[in-house]
Amino acid sequence: MDTHKPFEKIASRFQISQESAKFFLGRVQKSFKTEKPPHKLIVDFLEAQELEYLLTPYELAAMLNESGAWPHALVTEPPAIVDDEDLY
Q: Could you point out which of 1, 85, 87, 88 has its C-alpha 20 to 30 Å from the C-alpha of 50?
């Protein structure tokens, strides 16, 4: 039986801290309007995709939605963060 928690699997696979993995899972859940996918579903879906790098939480939520793994409504995509050019 697998005793690893979902955030531990993400942290290990993508070499990020456990806190970052917890935050990532929470942000994926917050990408949906009302019904939030369980962490296990998110991790199982992520493992099935065999991605080499971690997507943004919204990108993963959109993939969950488009594939039918979690067909609930998404919130509006957050704006992309763009650094301003140096003024000096």
A: 1
